[in-house]
Amino acid sequence: AMKINQDTVLRGKKVTLVPYTAAHVPRYHEWMQSEELQRLTASEPLSLEQEHEMQRSWQDDADKCTFIVLDSERWPGQAEENSMVGDVNLFLTNAKDPTVGEIEIMIAEPSCRGRGFGKEATLLMMAYGVRKLGIIKFEAKIGQENEASICMFKKLHFKEVAVNSIFQEVTLRLDVSDQERQWLLEQTNHMEEKSYTELKQPAGVLDT
């Protein structure tokens, strides 16, 4: 079940991935008022209360793994809601094949786009999926107009396998061969996995 990541922090150079909690909802809700993000993520605007319900259901969902993407330069140090730049999700949508994960990345803060945040967040999530969740096939479904995202996934060795002209969506896929696995682990060998509870403790609390 996806409670697996509720105390997991994945720390990279540019971004740090933390579990999606109720504290992140107000900022997330703010982002999702943006028509551009609604279009790119094919989602409907929700009320704050609905967004809180959604967060709770995601937390308990057995086939969804969600992290909030924080700016590593800002956190720990600044409040999480001031360090949030986006989110990354892994959906285990294929009931017949638990080794398939559909990956989704959103860098919601415009000032943080084009800086490699999305790429690193995606790599950290993929490495986590391979090591912890037994994923060996990744899929990404991206709106045709979202060229930056399509281009990024291709750089991460994904191949375009289908185009759905009704949904205006491209499906990309990566099969994790031994060679790809090796590459992925090399790309993420700087990643540190930590405990969220410990990192959130204000300094000094642990010394008493």
Automatic annotation (TrEMBL):
Pfam families: Acetyltransf_3. GO terms for molecular function: tubulin N-terminal-methionine acetyltransferase activity. Its EC number is 2.3.1.308. Residues 15-159 form the N-acetyltransferase domain. Keywords: Acyltransferase, Transferase. It catalyses: N-terminal L-methionyl-[tubulin] + acetyl-CoA = N-terminal N(alpha)-acetyl-L-methionyl-[tubulin] + CoA + H(+). It is an enzyme of class 2 (transferase). Belongs to the acetyltransferase family. GNAT subfamily. N-acetyltransferase that mediates the acetylation of the N-terminal residues of alpha- and beta-tubulin. This is Alpha/beta-tubulin-N-acetyltransferase 9.
